[in-house]
Specification:
Blueprint (H helix, E strand, L loop, with lengths): L1 H9 L1 H9 L1 H14 L3 H17 L1 H7 L2 H19 L6 H7 L1 H4 L9 H9 L2 H11 L8 H11 L1 H7 L8 H4 L3 H16 L3 H12 L6
Helix pairs in contact: 1-2, 2-3, 2-10, 3-4, 4-10, 5-10, 6-7, 6-10, 6-14, 6-15, 7-14
Length: 212
């Protein structure tokens, strides 16, 4: 037990997993010890952490510090821009966004530059580590974040009309390129806000609900 405690203290990543998803912790702890300092195994461990982080993104964003959240938002914007650049139809990008509709993208069709961006980017790991530090984050009220969000996205809302923020995936699939561009414009809009506001807006974009 003392060994486990010492390792957790040395690893913000494991600390975050233990805090957010205790049921998954033992498997990640064993995986971490097994990986050791062996390059191939350590890379595999970090890839599994990234997959876990994606599944727990909303919770991590709420716990992480503003700078880590903004860094994730910037990565997300680049990620979507690069996904849309993979083909002119927007099909690849749409599959990245909504694999439940058309299936996941065929990564064999992706450029080496796009694949390297996904593998090498540490924004998700930094988000996990920040959440694991346990530093309290002060959040806006539900009323305040709603008002701020409406004002910040006014330009893309005017541009796209009723289709902007639509949740009908089948309707969105009718124009995949536009759907991806709307996601890009949304992230670009929230990143233009001052840092404190931008971080809260990014959290809000991904949240299912916002505490009162």
């Amino acid at each position: 037990m003392q060994l486990k405690t010492r390792i957790i203290d040395m690893s913000p990543t494991l600390k975050a997993i233990n805090q957010v998803d205790p049921e998954a912790f033992d498997a990640f702890f064993a995986d971490y010890k097994n990986a050791g300092s062996i390059p191939g195994k350590r890379e595999g461990h970090y890839m599994r952490v990234q997959q876990w982080a994606t599944a727990n993104l909303k919770h991590l964003l709420y716990l992480a510090a503003d700078d880590a959240v903004i860094n994730y938002g910037k990565m997300r914007l680049q990620f979507l821009q690069k996904a849309l650049a993979q083909d002119t139809s927007g099909d690849f990008c749409f599959r990245v966004l909504h694999p439940e509709v058309s299936g996941p993208p065929d990564m064999k069709l992706a450029s080496a530059e796009y694949r390297n961006f996904i593998i090498s980017n540490r924004a998700v790991l930094d988000l996990v580590n920040s959440a694991g530090e346990g530093i309290p984050v002060e959040h806006y009220s539900a009323d305040d974040i709603n008002i701020l969000f409406s004002a910040q996205i006014q330009e893309p809302a005017d541009k796209y009309g009723d289709r902007f923020l639509m949740d009908d995936l089948l309707a969105l699939a009718e124009n995949k390129r536009q759907t991806c561009q709307m996601e890009i414009d949304l992230m670009d809009a929230v990143l233009k806000a001052p840092p404190r506001e931008s971080a809260e807006l990014i959290r809000y974009v991904f949240a299912d609900e916002w505490p009162e």
